[in-house]
Write a structure and sequence with these properties.
Blueprint (H helix, E strand, L loop, with lengths): L8 H27 L18 H18 L2 H7 L2 H13 L8 H23 L13 H44 L16 H52 L22 H6 L16
Helix pairs in contact: 1-2, 1-4, 1-5, 1-7, 2-4, 3-5, 4-5, 5-7, 6-7
Length: 295
C-alpha cells in the first residue's frame, strides 16, 4: 500500500508543523504587540526584551517533537506529541510574553494548533496497518464487513472535516474583525453625548492598528485552514482510500494470484503439487499399489 507519509516522513512532518505552530503562537506577538499603540488594555504598545529566546526554543520544540513522534508507541503518540508545543507556549508566556498573562493570542493559537496536531496524529495512527486488524477475522464476509465499516467511517470523517473547516473559516473571519474593533482604538470618532471625543490622530492610529490586527488575524485563520486541510483532512481521505483499496482486493482478488492457506477471503487453497509439497516440507502421501490382476 502506497503512502505519502511513511517511516520517518510523518514524524518529520509533525516536528515541522509543531515548530511552525510555536513560532506562530510566540514569535508573531513579539512583532505585532510592539506596533499596536491604541490597544484599549495596553495603550502605547508592549515590548518584550526576551523575545530573542523564541527562535532557540523553537529548535527545542522541533527535536523534542521529532523524538516523541519517532519512538513513542502509536497508541500514545496522539497525546504525547503535543506536549512540547504546550510546554514551550506556557513557558514563553511566563518568561517572554509576561506583559499579558495569559496572553490571549498565544493561548488561542496554541489551542488551535494542539487540536490540529492531535487530530492529524490520531487519524494517521488509526490506519497505520489495516491488515493487522484482519488477523482475528476468519470469514470472508466478516472481513469485508469490517472494511466496509472502516471505509464509511473515514469517508464521513473526511467530508465532515472538510465542510467543518470551510464553515469555521467564514465564521472565524467575521469574529476576529468584530473582536479587533473592540480591542483597537477608541470608537473611531463616533460621537457620544457627554464623552470626550478622540482626536484625529487617535482615530488615524486606531484605523491603522485595526488594519494591522485584522491582517494578522486573517493570516492566522488562513494558516489554520491550510494546516487542517493538508493535515487531518488529507489524512482522512488517505485512510478512506487505503481501506477501500483493501476492501476491493479482498472482494475481487487478482485472477493471477493464488490464495494462501487460511486467507481471510475464505477461499480454499489449491492442492499442492509434488514439487511444491516437497519444498514446503510436506511428505506426499502416495496411494497403495494396485493388487496384481488375478490369473
Amino acid at each position: 500500500m502506497r503512502r505519502l507519509l511513511t517511516g520517518r516522513s510523518f514524524p518529520l512532518a509533525l516536528a515541522v508543523a509543531g515548530t511552525l505552530a510555536y513560532l506562530h503562537a510566540a514569535f508573531v506577538p513579539t512583532f505585532v504587540d510592539a506596533r499596536l499603540r491604541t490597544i484599549v488594555t495596553y495603550p502605547g504598545g508592549r515590548t518584550y526584551p526576551l523575545a530573542w529566546l523564541v527562535p532557540p526554543a523553537s529548535v527545542g520544540v522541533f527535536f523534542s517533537t521529532l523524538v516523541i513522534a519517532l519512538y513513542v508507541p502509536a497508541r500514545l503518540r496522539a497525546s504525547l506529541v503535543c506536549i512540547p508545543l504546550l510546554l514551550a507556549s506556557a513557558l514563553s508566556n511566563v518568561f517572554i510574553l509576561r506583559a499579558e498573562l495569559p496572553h490571549i493570542g498565544l493561548a488561542v493559537t496554541t489551542a488551535v494548533w494542539l487540536s490540529i496536531l492531535g487530530l492529524w496524529t490520531w487519524i494517521h495512527d488509526s490506519h497505520l496497518d489495516p491488515e493487522s486488524d484482519l488477523k482475528s477475522v476468519l470469514e470472508a464476509d466478516e472481513a469485508l464487513e469490517f472494511l466496509k465499516e472502516e471505509a464509511n467511517f473515514y469517508r464521513t470523517l473526511a467530508f465532515g472535516l472538510l465542510g467543518g473547516s470551510l464553515a469555521l473559516v467564514v465564521t472565524a473571519a467575521a469574529a476576529v474583525h468584530t473582536g479587533s474593533k473592540e480591542l483597537v482604538g477608541n470608537s473611531f470618532g463616533v460621537l457620544q453625548a457627554g464623552a470626550a471625543q478622540p482626536s484625529t490622530a487617535q482615530i488615524a492610529n486606531a484605523r491603522s492598528d485595526l488594519f494591522l490586527y485584522d491582517q494578522v488575524n486573517y493570516t492566522g485563520v488562513a494558516l489554520f485552514w491550510l494546516a487542517l486541510l493538508f493535515g487531518p483532512v488529507l489524512e482522512a481521505f488517505r485512510a478512506w482510500r487505503i481501506t477501500a483499496d483493501l476492501f476491493l482486493q479482498l472482494k475481487k482478488p487478482h485472477p493471477n494470484s493464488l490464495p494462501r492457506a487460511g486467507d481471510v477471503t475464505g477461499t480454499p487453497s489449491p492442492p499442492l503439487s509434488l514439487s511444491k509439497g516437497v519444498k514446503r516440507g510436506i511428505t506426499p502421501q502416495h496411494p497403495p499399489p494396485a493388487p496384481p490382476p488375478a490369473g
